[in-house]
Specification:
The chain has about 200 residues and is α/β, with parallel strands linked by helices. Helices cover about 45% and strands about 15% of the residues. The chain folds into two domains: about 5-55, Helicase, Ruva Protein, domain 3, CATH 1.10.8; about 60-199, Dna Topoisomerase Vi A Subunit, Chain: A, domain 2, CATH 3.40.1360. α1 packs across α2 and α5 packs across α8. The longest helix has 17 residues, at about 40-55.
Length: about 200
Amino acid sequence: MEYFPAPLEKLVEQFARLPGIGGKSAQRLAFYVLGLPEEEAKEFADAILDAKHSVTCCPVCQNFTAGGLCPICASPKRDSSTICVVADPRDVAAIERSREYDGQYHVLHGVISPLNHVGPDDLAIKSLVERVAKGGVQEVIMATNPDTEGEATAMYIARLLKPFDVRVTRLAYGIPVGGHLEFADDATLMRALEGRRDI
């Protein structure tokens, strides 16, 4: 038996599809949106559609951008000889919060995960190898999460980059095994960057 009108049920279902949102949270969000004035609800919906239509991937690092190069790739102050490889755009924000890294990034948009049917061809690995092959890169920092998939992805990429004269390092284990970069505090990320090692 449905307790709410069909449009409200559909709104609750859409919120429940978001990661980390359960049924009760989805209901609270749906009721909150219904309680918004018409103009604010329209702004909310427009913000979603605008982000969906205008946010793309940077042609160099694959991070999210609003067209053209992302601000990090476009900045002349960033060290282009160092590339920090991360699984997700959220990881870029996490490392940037540490204020210890001044190089560039490469976002894979996932990790190798055979159980989830994600292979190397599903990730932005080819464009990373092409960046390194062009020359000028001295170090590639593997900053994938220290879990099974993150480790496997780091090792796979390290093997691909072996033929190039480039140092491949791994973040030190200041971040707990099984943890995720986006939840690490600034001090932990700083120690992890300082203690990186060759792989």
